[in-house]
């Protein structure tokens, strides 16, 4: 992600601008004719239709809320839209937030504590929220966002391409007990050599979104910074090994696209990609057989990377009481189950194959079980830094300049990456 706006104004300015936006400062709006706004980074018609249905159900029982508008934007626009709206006094009431932004927004005082409303809402079952999956959003007894989507990055693969090329598929390697990044690299090159099609494309990456490489980092025991996000570890031997494999696929094997090369797995142009469960909607009209498997293991074992997004109420919004009440409604057990066909829930009672498959015509219990296993056992949430906007911008920029290049001296290159991000941690 590119957080250009926050990086430009600086984290200090953000904190100062938000410090005054406490619950007592923002207006509650009129007692009726409340209009709620929520930003989200999906424009998928099925996602939007479901959120509209939930909003209609809420308004039917809350006549004081006359409209709920969902504003679609892209993830790389999110911080610009939110901070510009806050500065202009036109902030939305609620928003999706990626877990990478959790610490930064909480520290800046930008989010409302939802815990009192959630705990007092009849039938909400606050204790059903899996504690380990709430950690990034809780500070003491306060809860500043409710994860509505917590799921592992998984690997989708085009079974027909592997079969037609006579190359082992990811499922075949799993059956042989050899599902590692090294073995995946081998079959990716074999597929590319046989068909001319890239064996692997990282979805939603385009060499600008470092988080999409986290499964590879974790498999090798690496991370761009230490556990408390105080020091860079991007130059560790583990990270160097991970990037050697990735750069090898891109620049040596030709089995993964080079920077600037556009490849669409969903359109049948690659053997495999890594993405979230919500991407299954892109395969609704697929003309090829496909499957889902966990991401490969590595020297550090099988540690799946969990992405997470939460719904949060903004302190700068105008309708605190209604926003928090709608947040509780959106994330209650019933609606979390409705959303689960696209977004893996963080409720213990809902992490079942029946719920995740739901009414989907393309998902099966066998396809979603790896996601449940990763969420409850082998999963680890993405790294989070408090100064995330500036850190992410510097990390993406330095990786682009020093690492994602042919014949990179990775020892030197990753040292340059740490030089760029260490002062920001």
TrEMBL record:
The organism's superkingdom is given as Bacteria
Which stretch is the leader sequence? 1-26
This protein's UniProt keywords: Signal
The entry's protein name is Sugar ABC transporter substrate-binding protein
Give the originating organism.
Agromyces rhizosphaerae
């Amino acid at each position: 992600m590119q957080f250009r706006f926050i990086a430009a104004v600086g984290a200090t300015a953000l904190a100062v601008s938000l410090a005054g936006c406490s619950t007592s400062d923002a207006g509650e709006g009129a007692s009726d004719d409340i209009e709620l706004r929520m930003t989200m980074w999906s424009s998928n018609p099925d996602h939007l239709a479901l959120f509209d249905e939930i909003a209609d159900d809420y308004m039917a029982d809350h006549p004081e809320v006359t409209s709920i508008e969902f504003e679609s934007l892209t993830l790389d626009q999110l911080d610009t839209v939110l901070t510009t709206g806050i500065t202009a006094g036109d902030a939305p009431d609620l928003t999706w937030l990626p877990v990478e932004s959790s610490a930064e927004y909480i520290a800046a005082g930008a989010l409302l504590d939802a815990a009192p409303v959630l705990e007092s809402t009849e039938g909400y079952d606050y204790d059903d929220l899996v504690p380990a999956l709430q950690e990034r959003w809780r500070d003491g007894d306060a809860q500043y966002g409710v994860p509505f989507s917590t799921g592992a990055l998984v690997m989708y693969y085009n079974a027909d391409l592997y079969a037609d090329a006579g190359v082992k598929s990811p499922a075949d390697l799993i059956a042989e007990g050899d599902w590692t990044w090294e073995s995946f690299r081998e079959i990716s090159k074999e597929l590319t050599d046989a068909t001319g099609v890239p064996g692997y494309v990282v979805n939603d990456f385009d060499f600008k979104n470092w988080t999409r490489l986290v499964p590879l980092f974790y498999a090798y025991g690496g991370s761009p910074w230490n556990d408390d996000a105080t020091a860079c570890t991007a130059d560790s031997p583990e990270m160097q090994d991970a990037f050697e494999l990735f750069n090898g696929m891109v620049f040596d094997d030709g089995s993964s696209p080079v920077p600037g090369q556009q490849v669409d797995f969903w359109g049948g142009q690659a053997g495999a990609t890594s993405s979230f469960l919500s991407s299954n909607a892109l395969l609704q009209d697929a003309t090829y057989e496909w499957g889902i498997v966990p991401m490969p293991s590595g020297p550090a074992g099988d540690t799946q990377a969990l992405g997470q997004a939460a719904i949060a109420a903004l302190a700068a919004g105008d309708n605190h009481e209604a926003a928090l009440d709608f947040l509780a409604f959106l994330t209650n057990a019933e609606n979390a189950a409705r959303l689960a066909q696209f977004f893996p829930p963080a409720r213990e009672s809902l992490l079942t194959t029946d719920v995740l498959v739901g009414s989907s015509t393309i998902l099966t219990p066998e396809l979603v079980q790896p996601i449940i296993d990763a969420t409850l056992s082998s999963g680890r949430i993405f790294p989070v830094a408090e100064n995330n906007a500036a850190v992410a911008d510097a990390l993406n920029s330095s990786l682009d300049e020093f690492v994602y290049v042919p014949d990179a001296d990775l020892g030197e290159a990753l040292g340059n990456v740490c030089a760029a991000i260490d002062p920001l941690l």
